[in-house]
Amino acid sequence: MTLRPTVDFMALLAETGVPTTEAAMEAELKKEVEAAGSLITNDSDVSPFWRLVRGVVITPALWLIRTLLAGHVLPNTFAATATDAYLDLKAWDVDLTRKGAQKTRGLVNFVKANPAEAVTIPADIWITTERINGTIYRLRPLQAVVSPAGEAVAKVVCEAEHAGAAWNLAPGYYNLLSEAVTGILSARNDDKEWITTQGSDAESNDALGLRIQNQFSAVGRYHIDAIYRSMLASVAGIRADHIFFEHDAPRGPGTANAYILLEVGTTPASLVAQLNDYVGRQGNHGHGDDLFVMAMPETQHSLTLELWPVANLSDEQRAALKAGAENLVRAAFRQSADFPSVTRTWPQSRFSLSQLASELHEQFPTLQSLQFAQGDILSGLDIPRLEVLEVILHD
Fold first, then answer.
1. Distance (Å, whole) CA 393 – CA 322
2. Are 197 and 126 spatial neighbours (Cβ–Cβ below 8 Å)?
3. β-pair partners for 17
4. Residue among 201, 203, 226 nearest 216 (CA)
């Protein structure tokens, strides 16, 4: 992942000769005092004159340099380091605005006990997940729905409780009803393309900073990668560094593909269709260009993870360890947004299972040892996905 630089502005100021410590500033003031022909000779640490100077001159001056200049003004002068409202102003300079948060919407399958009967699914029912790293995610229908007689499974459009990408969970995660519904056996987000509207967080400073950087490349308005990246990344939930191009004329001269990767879950077909309509049918492409937007291709992988916990754990602690380890591994394969510090799978990279093992140890102190049956995963222009995950907890 491409991140914005981290800059030590205090070090840069010091390199240019700006005094950034009390000793350095006092030395500069003493030079000025001597140059002015001062007759003060008592320059000890307990000198009343220098104690006064430190209190009314040096301390405020250091605050101006450290807090105001190095900590506030300089970082917010550059798109590479600016944050929040100041970064929004930088975005305005290049005709961009920060993307807002958006709630996930998708189709949940309600299985009826008797297909021959009509069933009403209320709007105040929640479809929830198991607890994932301490959080329960919930959806509910946009409105009450009547499933007519003769329909075995009612596909109901549901919306997440809150906005954010964390609700874009993989199929099967939403599988619990908050209360029983007469005539309904179960509810579950079974379909791979269950999401109709991608949930997204408010655009982060890093993501907006990357779009601003890309916009400078796009200013010439030639239809190169930067232009297409700018157009596609303007959609909620798509980051500029999550767009990958294939240039080697996949459909002949003048053709290219843009592959979209999302932070969580697969890229919905509805989102791909929306992007292709904007680029193609609405004519937002260069003369002679043939750009096709696709979801990032996937490779399916099976993993077996063996766990050996420390001694004397209770049954509840053992169950929590097994569930937590499974959730962390699934998060690493982009099935959820939990465990944000865990290394995710990426295209064109090596996914290190030894690194994942280290992160499991760091997250779960009750884990004594672990072993993956498989080796590292090498990816090309595709994203590794979990097909089967088997977690074995030993005594």
1. 7
2. no
3. none
4. 226
- Three-state DSSP at 358 gives helix
User: 348-353, long-range: CB within 8 Å, 24+ apart, which pairs?
Assistant: 348/244, 348/379, 348/380, 348/381, 349/378, 349/379, 350/376, 350/377, 350/378, 350/379, 351/376, 351/377, 351/378, 351/379, 351/384, 352/376, 353/377
Helix axes 353-363, 315-332, angle to 10 degrees: 140
HSE toward the beta carbon, residue 187, CA cutoff 13 A: 30
- Using CA atoms, how far apart are residues 80 and 3, in angstroms rounded to an integer? 9
The neighbouring-strand residues paired with 371 are: 306
Q: Rounded to 5 degrees, what are φ and ψ at 111?
A: -90, 125
pTM: 0.72
Are residues 139 and 160 in contact, defined by beta-carbon separation less than 8 angstroms?
A: yes
* CB atoms inside a 10 Å sphere around CB 334: 22
Q: What is the pLDDT of residues 94-123, one digit of tens each?
A: 889 999 999 999 999 999 999 999 999 999
